[in-house]
Amino acid sequence: MTYCLGIVTQYGLVMAADSRTNAGVDYISTYQKLFDFTVPGERVILLATAGNLSMTQEILTILRRDLRAQADVSLHTLPNMYEIARYVGSKVRQVIETHRAWLQQDKIDYQCSFLLGGQIRGEETCLYLIYSQGNFLQATPETPFLQIGETKYGKPILDRTLSYDTSIEAAAKYALLSLDSTMKSNISVGPPLHLIKYAANTFLIKHRVELVLRDPFLIKIRKYWEASLRQAFEGMPAIEWQEGEFADVALLSAIDPEVLPPPS
Amino acid sequence: MTYCLGIVTQYGLVMAADSRTNAGVDYISTYQKLFDFTVPGERVILLATAGNLSMTQEILTILRRDLRAQADVSLHTLPNMYEIARYVGSKVRQVIETHRAWLQQDKIDYQCSFLLGGQIRGEETCLYLIYSQGNFLQATPETPFLQIGETKYGKPILDRTLSYDTSIEAAAKYALLSLDSTMKSNISVGPPLHLIKYAANTFLIKHRVELVLRDPFLIKIRKYWEASLRQAFEGMPAIEWQEGEFADVALLSAIDPEVLPPPS
């Protein structure tokens, strides 16, 4: 598995990814999942990948081949992010179509997905999720983040904190906590982590970071966060229990559904 | 979906469950998922259910029928929790076997699972997870909680905080936060929430609570928790970014995989 995350706010974009790939639990390796196709001063194009590695690698190879061949249609020629999302989606369809029948007959999961984030001069910063079927959706101010891969463990922290008004520095910290929560709960997500912060309308990537296993900063924020959770927890209001000896009533109600009050 | 959670520590047991059942997203209803079969002073038996509702209801009906008929083998006669886990597992197998072929041919998910928690006089407090196949596993001091249903959203808070030394009052609060995180991230989990706290070696349920939608306490702890997360976050160490203008190098490495350093 993998976990990648994009956050777009009015101030810019954050993209983050782990680097773990696994085929079962006994073949685990490290592959970069976050790729930068920026043309400084003109367009910022970031891609993150999840799913079947042989599919995502081949799709990236084709995207790169179009760039190297200076094809008419490529990540560097298309006039806007919507067209780029369509273009990446078409490559996803093309590669999956080539392999689907062979993988399907051996019940191998060929699904993959991409996050596409960036900004082209003249447009707003934007973020797309491109599905295995080649269709895509766009992050909006109401839900300013998109995730691919192992998305669930890292979602609560984002649901509770993020909005379109969040600064990109704060968004980057939340992204890191979201990744760290996922790593802690699922061994199929792991370091090095890659994180990129992009300030809207700069058309340059000025901030990025790679955090390796046992990176002191990663350890520091994990310790800090766990201590903070415990401290926050200390002050949490006490549960207002119904006190009594419930066994008799409960026994009746458990045995005899007829005496239960109707579902509320 | 549903989310149920059990926590066993050296001080006792906490069981918690939501009450939402859905068939797709357009048929959502409320059913109790946490059931108390305690015999005061002798045994505490709690069951929580997830999965196909028609299966779990029928299994509970059979368990209750054995009790009402004062069968030789029932939740109230078996001498220990291990035997009760086996007994519940056998009923799971029996009911699923009755319906499997009919559901399978229409591709309906018939899976279900149970949490069984409690204590019988002469034994330690214990907690089991009984699978749809009737086999089961037991919580241990290393991993003192078990979950069924929509388990992922609520797992990070538990992974970061719980241990076998946690008091049951603290465990109950963490259980509530875990449920609340899940509700916030997944609409298929919802109130009323049921929470039971059992102090080891008392053989009585003295604390339980039902929290309905918009329960003031539920709102209070959610607000408190989100404010605390934000506050904890304020003090979080700054990310130590690599600063620069990365586009050139990144462009090269994104286009030309040959110039990439080998995976670390």
Layout of secondary structure:
The structure is a homodimer of 264-residue chains.
Chain A: E1 3-9, E2 12-17, E3 20-22, E4 28-30, E5 34-36, E6 43-51, H1 53-68, H2 81-104, E7 112-120, E8 126-130, E9 136-138, E10 145-149, H3 155-161, H4 168-185, E11 193-199, E12 207-211, H5 216-234, E13 242-243, H6 247-255
Antiparallel strand pairs in A: 1-2, 1-10, 2-11, 3-4, 5-6, 6-7, 7-8, 8-9, 11-12
Helix pairs in contact in A: 1-2, 3-4
Topology of chain A as a string of helices (H) and strands (E): EEEEEEHHEEEEHHEEHEH
Low-confidence stretches of chain A: 248-252, 257-264
Strand order of the largest sheet of chain A: 10-1-2-11-12
Number of helices of chain A: 6
* Multimeric organization: homodimer
Biggest β-sheet of chain A, characterized?
Answer: 5 strands, antiparallel
**In CATH, what is the homologous superfamily of chain A?**
Aminohydrolase, N-terminal nucleophile (Ntn) domain
Query: What share of residues are in beta strands of chain A?
Result: 25-35%
Instruction: Determine the most extensive contact between two protein chains.
Output: A-B, 83 and 83 residues
How many runs of DSSP E, i.e. beta strands of chain A?
Answer: 13
SSE class of chain A: alpha+beta
CATH topology name of chain A: Glutamine Phosphoribosylpyrophosphate, subunit 1, domain 1
- What is the molecular shape of chain A? globular
Mean pLDDT of chain A: 88
CATH class wording of chain A: Alpha Beta
Overall helicity of chain A: 25-40%
Keywords (chains A, B): Hydrolase, Protease, Proteasome
Protein name (chains A, B): Proteasome-type protease
InterPro entries (chains A, B): Ntn_hydrolases_N, Proteasome_sua/b, UCP009120_prtse
GO molecular function (chains A, B): peptidase activity
